[in-house]
């Protein structure tokens, strides 16, 4: 006689399957701080990521050789041809696009594009950054504000035609008409973009009209990507936060410029939810980099953003009158000491 086994009709099995973390493609511009670049590179290096380095054309040949020698000990590192990059000009935009195309054309496996300079430094470990990106797979991060409503004084940079040359801009600018049916945005040059977003920027026919227009304006590096993405289908994926900690100060004729961070800013840096900070200058204060390096090594940095998942936050329109995405940039007079919560901004 056969024995009836008492097997439940429904059983549930739970397997602890490790989540697949995304891979990052870093694009790093080296200008004039090779020592800081090496410290930055060591702090963000992870064998699963990719690192594309572009050395500014004006860098001395000995510095270039030193950087290349340093990189020989690491895998997944690539060098992009040196170019002359003019701050504020379209050459900065073209440099970013060239970096994206290079990384895409090599058929490398990566999910996010992050651009940095040799004056940046991470505030979180690579494991933390990878976990953050895993929870925000479809989101793109950059600073964005309405150019007409928030920064109307920058519109002359868009409506006037400028010719970029090897050093600066030449000729007398002349006015031209705006692009039709386009809303203008401005922000900063630092970004965290998904691979899909980079593929769109590099290959979509929608992009050409923006490239043609922005090739002849000032501050293209702070407005091209913002205006392009906010006027296309990627608008709903943009989070108005570049995840950079920057303190802006008023300095003479320059309306705003990023403050060189020192050890006096350490509480602001390690207690926030930003992933990176800028700008640093070891000639001014090397100790701040020492402190951050030690904090990363010993996991002392507070990970306040561990619970943030931007996929769970409803997308807000940038044009809304009252929007959490439109925080005005902090302006700090260097002669005034502001409370730490107010020390926020980005470049």
UniProtKB/TrEMBL annotation:
GO terms for cellular component: membrane. The keyword Transcription does not apply. Keywords: Disulfide bond, Endoplasmic reticulum, Glycoprotein, Glycosyltransferase, Golgi apparatus, Membrane, Metal-binding, Signal-anchor, Transferase, Transmembrane, Transmembrane helix. One of its GO terms (biological process) is chondroitin sulfate proteoglycan biosynthetic process. It holds the Pfam family Branch. InterPro entries: Glyco_trans_14 (IPR003406), XYLT (IPR043538). It is a single-pass type II membrane protein. One of its GO terms (molecular function) is metal ion binding. It is found in: Endoplasmic reticulum membrane; Golgi apparatus membrane. PANTHER family: XYLOSYLTRANSFERASE OXT (PTHR46025:SF3). This is Peptide O-xylosyltransferase.
């Amino acid at each position: 006689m056969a024995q009836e086994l008492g097997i439940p009709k429904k059983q549930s099995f739970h397997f602890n399957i490790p989540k697949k973390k995304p891979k990052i493609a870093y694009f790093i511009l080296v200008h004039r701080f090779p020592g800081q670049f090496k410290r930055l590179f060591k702090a963000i290096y992870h064998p699963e990521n990719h690192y594309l380095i572009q050395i500014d054309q004006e860098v001395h040949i000995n510095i270039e050789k030193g950087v290349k020698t340093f990189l020989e000990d690491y895998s997944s590192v690539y060098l992009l041809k040196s170019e002359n990059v003019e701050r504020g000009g379209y050459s900065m935009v073209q440099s970013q696009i060239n970096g994206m195309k290079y990384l895409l054309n090599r058929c490398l496996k990566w999910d996010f594009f992050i651009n940095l300079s040799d004056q940046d430094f991470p505030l979180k470990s690579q494991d933390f950054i990878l976990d953050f990106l895993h929870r925000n797979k479809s989101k793109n991060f950059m600073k964005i504000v309405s150019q007409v409503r928030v920064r109307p004084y920058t519109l002359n940079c868009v409506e006037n035609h400028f010719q970029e040359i090897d050093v600066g801009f030449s000729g007398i600018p002349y006015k031209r008409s705006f692009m039709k049916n386009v809303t203008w945005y401005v922000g900063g040059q630092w970004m965290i973009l998904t691979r899909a977003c980079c593929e769109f920027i590099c290959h979509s026919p929608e992009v050409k009209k923006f490239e043609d227009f922005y090739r002849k304006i000032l501050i293209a590096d702070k407005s091209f990507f913002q205006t392009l993405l906010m006027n296309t289908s990627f608008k709903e994926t943009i989070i108005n936060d570049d995840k950079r900690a920057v303190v802006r100060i008023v300095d003479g004729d320059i309306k705003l410029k990023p403050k060189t961070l020192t050890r006096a800013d350490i509480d602001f840096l390690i207690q926030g939810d930003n992933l990176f900070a800028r700008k640093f200058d070891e000639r001014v204060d090397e100790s701040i980099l020492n402190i951050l390096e030690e904090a990363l090594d010993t996991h002392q940095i507070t990970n306040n953003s561990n619970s943030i998942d931007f996929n769970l936050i409803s997308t807000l329109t940038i044009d809304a009158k009252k929007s959490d995405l439109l925080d005005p940039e902090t302006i700090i007079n260097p002669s005034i000491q502001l409370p730490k919560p107010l020390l926020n901004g980005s470049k």
